[in-house]
Design a protein that fits this description.
It is a single chain. By secondary structure, the chain is mainly alpha-helical. The protein contains eight helices and two strands; from the N terminus they run αααββααααα. Strands 1-2 form a two-stranded antiparallel sheet. Helix 1 packs antiparallel against helix 5, helix 3 packs across helix 4 and helix 3 runs parallel beside helix 7. The mean pLDDT is about 80.
Length: about 260
């Protein structure tokens, strides 16, 4: 039995292009893209998912894998997976913005640690929110929903020379404002409470200048903020779930699922 070089490349393309789209998703999706998650594990997950769904995929275009159009198709599959994961990363950034806003308002902005997902220093309060969002993401099987959407996208956006256009990218750029608006809205109740306490201390310091009110105000800010976080964390996760739903709706819109 003999195979030509072109036949071998066509067989490789049947597996290669779907795996590029799926592996691009796992390389950037929240939780799985953390630096603590081994790259080999992500590649193996992408490999087995591609192996399972490959027989059910639509017919691939008659394009050589190593040609100019083949490289263009490979790049497009990478963009589809990355843009889907990027939208979900923006959803997680909502909790990061909320945590940073609360930390700076309660005086804990100096207490920072390295975020294992992004590799940059963020306040500890923000890291608590991100960890809570990650556990919520896994517990609600949102990662399975992301896999289901990316697999369905092979029917709505088949592997071809034309896939995502500039209009889809512009929709994602416009939606990025939700990252800041949602973060501020989630943090607003705690920030407003701490602001009122700060105003009351300012009035008290004017009424009694001899009392070093801000000397005792700093620990009160921290204690009040921690209590409010403990009380409000269920509401924060509820708001995060609504933003997560909007994020998945945007992924479906961009991928035309």
């Amino acid at each position: 039995m003999e195979f030509t070089e072109q036949e071998i490349l066509n067989k490789i393309a049947l597996f290669f292009w779907p795996m590029v789209r799926i592996s691009a998703l796992f390389m950037a999706i929240p939780v799985f893209s953390a630096r603590s998650a081994p790259v080999k594990v992500r590649i193996m997950i992408s490999f087995f998912i591609t192996l399972i769904v490959m027989p059910f995929l639509p017919a691939l275009p008659n394009v050589e894998l190593m040609s100019y159009y083949g490289v263009l198709i490979t790049f497009q599959q990478m963009v589809i997976g990355l843009i889907s994961a990027f939208i979900l990363q923006m959803v997680f950034s909502v909790m990061l913005v909320a945590g940073q806003s609360i930390a700076y308002s309660m005086g804990l902005g100096f207490a920072s640690m390295v975020d294992p997902a992004s590799g940059v220093q963020v306040p500890v309060v923000a890291q608590i929110f991100v960890v809570s969002a990650s556990l919520f993401f896994i517990s609600m099987n949102a990662h399975l929903l992301a896999i289901e959407i990316i697999i369905q996208s092979f029917s709505s956006l088949p592997i071809a020379l034309v896939s995502i256009n500039m209009a889809d990218l512009w929709i994602v750029i416009m939606w990025s404002g939700q990252m800041f608006a949602g973060g501020v809205l989630l943090a607003l109740p705690i920030m407003a409470t701490i602001l009122f306490i700060n105003i009351s201390f300012g009035v008290a310091s004017k009424a009694a200048p001899q009392i070093q009110i801000f000397g005792i105000g700093f620990p009160i800010f921290i204690m009040t903020g921690l209590i409010l976080i403990w009380v409000m964390i269920p509401n924060l996760l509820t708001g995060f779930s609504l933003i997560l739903i909007d994020g998945f709706d945007l992924v479906k819109q961009v991928l035309r699922v």
